[in-house]
Design a protein that fits this description.
Blueprint: E1 12-15, H1 19-30, E2 35-38, E3 54-55, H2 65-88, E4 99-102, H3 105-122, E5 129-132, E6 147-150, E7 154-155, H4 158-171, E8 176-177, E9 185-188, H5 191-202, E10 207-218, E11 226-229, E12 232-238, E13 241-245, H6 260-272, E14 281-292, E15 298-301, E16 308-312, H7 318-335
Helix pairs in contact: 1-4, 1-7, 2-4, 2-7
The structure holds flavin-adenine dinucleotide (FAD).
């Protein structure tokens, strides 16, 4: 198969080697297309090179197209990431960990029980959402002594998952080039900078970036569920690494710098999970999430540019959604077929 350098034999160019661009490239390669991926920063140079990796569902209530789509994606992830591992020979850190959230007070308890009943139908028996008092020692502090345990949540290690995807793409006959010309159909999976530039080009607000900072602490709690407390994700990746995050910053200057806002996240994590109190900080990371004004993903033809498709807007759940969005983007780019759910189009 081609290594993607020959312009005349390229069916698809993918701009961007984050989780969006690489899942799209892998899908197109699986369909037999000849693919080139271009990213001046290389794989995982944007938001996808992070440390948290929570694959968590929306609450099972107020059902929307996005929630239904995300459910399908989370269920499909159970086979998707192991396939990436098999194709690449590399670990993605994917694990069906489940998740624990502490319940504070009677109102939260009543809402959690109602969501448990809703989950039984909405999640089609594939996973559960239950109130429990039976938790591991590392569970976050709970005022009521009760937690929600869901079995749909999973986790992966973002930087390792992207490296594995890039290796799977290489094994399928393509590679990530720092610089090259476009040929064939073009998918723009260019993250927050792509959304910002698109807003300028189309002269209307499509989206932009929201910065996030996260840290890695040295601790080994074993294979515990993912923890969510005080709006923080705590994800135990194994090998003595526990990720905590994140901040949400709409206004920012340095996209990759960390500061006192991350120190505050670490302090909050230590207060909800006291076993982290003395754990040294071994990594600090910042990135910018691509956020469409709709807060939904965008998979759409580029207006007025035949053969060009936009795939962006993963925002806070890009790793959960990307494998499900990739076939939709490839359908649009290579076959001109539009199977994109309503609401995932370009903001009007
Ligand atoms: C702190 C933080 C924590 C997060 N936690 C989670 C989480 O727990 N779970 C989850 O699912 N998601 C999480 N996210 C969100 C997730 O990281 C993003 O939704 C996802 O990485 C977006 O992927 P992407 O491929 O669209 O963008 P990116 O990974 O940013 O990739 C875009 C790429 O395009 C390249 N590029 C830009 N312009 C061009 C061009 N002109 N030509 C070629 N290439 C170009 C860039 O170099 C970049 O590599 C988090 C994000 C942050 C910042």
């Amino acid at each position: 198969m081609t290594k993607g350098r020959d312009l005349a034999t390229t069916d698809l160019t993918v701009r961007g080697a984050g989780v969006f661009g690489l899942t799209i490239a892998w899908e197109a390669l699986a369909r037999g297309a000849r693919v080139r991926v271009i990213d001046p920063r290389g794989p995982g140079g944007g938001a996808s090179g992070g440390v948290v990796g929570a694959l968590a569902p929306h609450a099972p209530e107020g059902w929307t197209a996005l929630k239904a789509f995300q459910l399908d994606c989370l269920l499909a992830a159970r086979s998707y990431w192991p396939q990436v591992e098999a194709a690449s020979g590399r670990s993605t850190g994917y694990r069906r960990s489940g998740r624990l959230q502490p319940l504070a007070g009677d109102k939260a308890l009543a809402r959690a029980r109602a969501r448990g009943i809703a989950a039984a139908t909405l999640w089609r028996g594939e996973a559960t959402w239950e109130v429990t008092a039976d938790v591991p020692e590392a569970a976050p502090v709970s005022e009521t002594g009760l937690w929600v345990h869901d079995t749909l949540s999973a986790q992966l290690d973002p930087a390792r998952a992207v490296a594995a995807l890039a290796a799977a793409v290489a094994a399928a006959g393509s590679e990530v080039l720092r610089e090259a010309g476009e040929a064939g159909a073009v998918v723009h999976a260019t993250g927050w900078e792509g959304l910002r530039d698109l807003s300028a080009t189309l002269r209307r607000e499509i989206g932009g970036g929201e910065k996030g900072q996260a840290a890695v602490l040295a601790a080994e709690p074993g294979e515990i569920p993912q923890l969510y407390a005080d709006r923080l994700h705590i994800v135990a990746h194994g090998a003595g690494r526990v990720a905590v995050g994140s901040t949400s910053e709409r206004a920012f200057e340095g996209a990759e710098t960390t500061d006192g806002e991350l120190d505050a996240v670490i302090d909050r994590a230590r207060s909800v999970a006291p076993w982290l109190r003395d754990a040294p900080v071994i990594g600090r990371w910042a990135g910018v999430r691509p956020r469409a004004v709709t807060r939904q993903p965008v998979v759409a033809p580029w207006p007025g540019r035949p053969g060009h498709v936009i795939a962006n807007g993963g925002f806070k759940t890009g790793f959960a959604l990307a494998p499900g969005l990739a076939p939709l983007a490839v359908d649009l780019a290579l076959e001109g077929t539009d199977r994109v759910p309503e609401g995932f189009g370009l903001p009007l």
